[in-house]
Design goal:
354 residues, mainly beta, four-stranded antiparallel sheet, three-stranded antiparallel sheet, rod-shaped
Length: 354
């Protein structure tokens, strides 16, 4: 190479713009330039071939020259000194509601939420919505609000937008309940009340069912029974409703006669008769002084209208012919015009120690 060519290379060695590498064409030979400097925006001087310089900045798109930028999901600035890039691309902030707020591509919906987060440059786009929950015996609420329903216990966890877990009936130890787990927990037979649930915790009270509507009884619930002065058995319908009848044995009043006469405290004269059925029908007690008397047996029976057969049917006879006059306490109170307290108080005086 002669001295003229050497001089030409020296003169154009600094004429390529930033981010471009250059070569000088001399005849059929290309000479690579050793340095790069500004020569106007994206200008390449005559006689020089300028190509985009490679870009190896981490987390960039690695495009050569000024096309080199940070990847979607990253933020930063890439600058050039000649053909040498510099700068940093760091994960871009993500403030999508219900996301983990992690930077860049680590940003994802929180457990219990579903959706897709994408990037437009360093700007995140997308939505995280509560994920459906179909766990059996749960409240079926979407997302983290999903929990075991009242009266059930368990834990529901999330893997992304997928729920898992089991809800089983919660224990119930309410006193006087049947102690059954979950919604099957109710008051035990002969008790009543309401059991409610707040989550897995039961509350409520089970109290003995009263039976004082049955005349002559005492106690409540399992202790319900006829007073000691009376006979009878109390049974329970469906474990909730007491049924039965308390009876008083009044045969002492009729041992010598079919009728028993007395005057009430209010001065009313009573003439009481006890009629017993030979067929096991209920014993009947009647005041013969009443304005109207029964006549169920009048069709077949003739004669005395005060006769048991005439009043109640041909299977009935006076108690004096037998050994019992066991009549319902309620009927006894009605016919004798006495309160329960009076019946109990008068029992010893009328019946002795029976």
């Amino acid at each position: 190479m002669d001295s003229k060519a050497m001089t030409m290379i020296a003169l154009i060695a600094v004429t390529c713009p930033l981010a471009l590498g250059g070569r000088v064409k001399m005849g059929n030979t290309l000479a690579t330039m050793a340095t790069v400097s500004a020569h106007g925006a994206h200008e390449c001087p005559p006689g020089v071939i300028c190509t985009p310089a490679p870009c190896g900045v981490e987390n960039s798109n690695m495009e050569p020259g000024t096309d080199c930028t940070c990847l979607p999901g990253f933020t930063g600035e890439i600058t050039w000194v000649g053909a040498t890039p510099s700068g940093t691309c760091t994960p871009a902030p993500c403030e999508i509601e219900n996301s983990n707020m992690a930077g860049g591509h680590e940003c994802a919906c929180l457990p219990g939420f579903s959706g897709e987060i994408s990037w437009l440059g360093s700007t995140p786009e997308g939505r995280c919505a509560p994920a459906p929950c179909d766990i059996a015996n749960s409240n079926l609420a979407a997302g983290p609000a999903c929990a075991c329903a009242d009266a059930f216990v368990g834990e529901i966890t999330w893997s992304g937008g997928n729920p898992s877990g089991t809800c089983i009936p919660a224990a119930c130890e309410i006193e006087n309940s049947n102690m059954a787990a979950g919604i099957k927990c109710t008051c035990a037979p002969k008790f009543h009340g309401e059991i409610t649930w707040s989550g897995a915790t039961p509350s409520g009270t089970c109290t003995p069912v009263p039976c004082d509507h049955l005349v002559g009884t005492t106690g409540a619930g399992p202790d319900c029974g006829c007073l000691p002065q009376f006979k009878g058995e109390i049974t329970w319908e469906d474990g909730r409703t007491p049924k039965g009848e308390c009876r008083i044995e009044a045969i002492t009043l009729f041992k010598s006669s079919d009728t028993f006469k007395f005057r009430t405290e209010s001065g009313v004269q009573k003439n009481m008769k006890c009629c017993v059925s030979s067929q096991g029908k209920p014993t009947e007690l009647v005041d013969l002084n009443a304005d109207t008397l029964p006549s169920a047996g009048a069709v077949r029976m003739f004669g005395d209208k005060h006769g048991c057969g005439y009043m109640f049917g041909d299977s009935y006879h006076g108690a004096s012919r037998g050994t019992t006059c066991e009549v319902a306490v309620a009927r006894y109170m009605e016919v004798t015009d006495q309160s329960l307290e009076q019946v109990i108080d008068n029992r010893k005086a009328w019946f002795g120690n029976i």
